Amino acid sequence: MATIKDVAKVAGVSVATVSRVLNSNGYVNVDTKKRVDQAIEQLNYRPNDVARALFKGRSKMIALFVPDIMNPFFPELARAVEDITNKNDYTFVLCNTDDNLEKVLTYMDALQQKSVDGIIIVSSTITAESLKRINVPVIALDRIFSSELSTVTVDNYQGARKATEYLIGLGCQRIAHISGPINASNAKNRLQGYLDIVSDEDWFLPSYVASGSFNLQKAKDVATELLMNHPELDGIFAANDVMGIGAMKAAESLGIHVPNDLSVIAFDGITMGEMATPSLTTMEQPIYDMGARAAEMLIEQINDQKLSRKNEAFSVQLVERQSTKRKRDMNE
Amino acid sequence: MATIKDVAKVAGVSVATVSRVLNSNGYVNVDTKKRVDQAIEQLNYRPNDVARALFKGRSKMIALFVPDIMNPFFPELARAVEDITNKNDYTFVLCNTDDNLEKVLTYMDALQQKSVDGIIIVSSTITAESLKRINVPVIALDRIFSSELSTVTVDNYQGARKATEYLIGLGCQRIAHISGPINASNAKNRLQGYLDIVSDEDWFLPSYVASGSFNLQKAKDVATELLMNHPELDGIFAANDVMGIGAMKAAESLGIHVPNDLSVIAFDGITMGEMATPSLTTMEQPIYDMGARAAEMLIEQINDQKLSRKNEAFSVQLVERQSTKRKRDMNE
Predict the structure, then answer these.
(1) ipTM computed for the complex
(2) Distance in angstroms (rounded) separating the CA atoms of residues A224 and A235
(3) Residue A67 sits in which domain range?
(4) Do B82 and A95 touch (CB under 8 A)?
């Protein structure tokens, strides 16, 4: 394979001159440029990405940080980001951070070494301070952790209000919320939406909150405790679908029928919720669209680093399935 | 940040000499080496990965090709590969190929340009021929598509025999198989295991086979057709868990009770099967261990490209859940 040195030799110029021609920067005499172009063609020289990264400090690589690709919310997001990066000739790097700040910093250093072009981050723990370690555009996806970044999210607060109102509309009067980790902006906003509705003066319902950490087993455990301590509960709003499934498993193990005795609504719209029996009513996020939009915004920022900060929030949509039902005493 | 040029200037040597010192190759005078080392220290110079890749043709990057990360079998595999690559200071690149040969070739060219160090491939369609485009170690994971590569799989044939025998042991006499795409080696071996058991002279049972393409909706459709055309069916062995869930959905929609009227067993051991109601009996693969082993083997091969080819097959394990049940007439 021909190297940049071979091109320089054939063209009778220096390597630096070939590099200037390749990167279209700096002055090059028209005749010289012609000689270099001819040498490139003659030798069938293709500068590889590694060389290009060294010259330009750009690698045609984009990274996505997620807590854990095994959490079923993230594969669709990752697929969307990869589809867009691939379409734009970027290579897609995936990093599982376990939302552990030390791991995040190690990834950042490694990616900096590789001249990564930009990063999309889903995180609750990264500090604005730690972002200073890396000198490339960053988009915050799904969760907001720094006011300085462009973000792609959904309207978590409105979605949570709608979910809670929906249960009230079905006749539920004793509604519990299983929340996500409270340092995550999305979990915090969903909790607030729930609280604002149940405590609204129109209804003034009691509130019941337990943290399920966005985790199925944890949600099953806290839902079991809630349902045992509060047999009066007739509705649960879980802050994500895997916790909604955990809540249904808890009800099943206690002999509480969903949806006859208890309505369960969740948040996300992952396939697993559709597959569950009963299938899970949920506030559906446009997961694929969110990932794709974040990747597009990142590429725009890579191409024009002077672009101003953007915050885009998609709306969520109620998808009614089998886990919720109008209470019988409402119909009578 | 200091560059290799700065080091050369301070040490009073050429860039090529600094490069020889950095890469410990070629002759360098002891005094010269000392001067270079001092210059490196004085300038706090750190050759970045991009420069290293250019010199050594190695990038500290490993790629994983999967058909689609949204298929719930792959996130756990990807997580395992990423854990091992990360532990060994490699960056993890994920490519969704849709099992489309043209996409695969485009990825290969892009990764070659980036001097990727090795690739782990899950594929049914890649030809040995197309692998010649890329000059790095490759491990075939989950499916075997070239006899020239090292592989990490499970014993699909034995696993399928055991699944089918298990249904017979429960008293099932009319057992259907929902197969994967027949160009995938794992699907082919699972089909063969099923066929060899039902046609065994000990039982000589009829066989019923329909292809569900490892896809939930497709499996639901073909299972609906099978169950309508053959009301005598009392057992289904699906070649993967998502198709097992599809078969259960088909039975549910036809008013056929699982497991009272129909036992369903599948293959994989993904979380979604555990979450389904009824929870899905399955032949569980050690998915995480497979991914981790493939990554370890790849790194061994990157470090010693003379290593001989290895084929490792994990065994699978029966996990009994709620979707299978001894037939009542067997107990009476």
Answers:
(1) 0.84
(2) 14
(3) 61-154+287-314
(4) yes
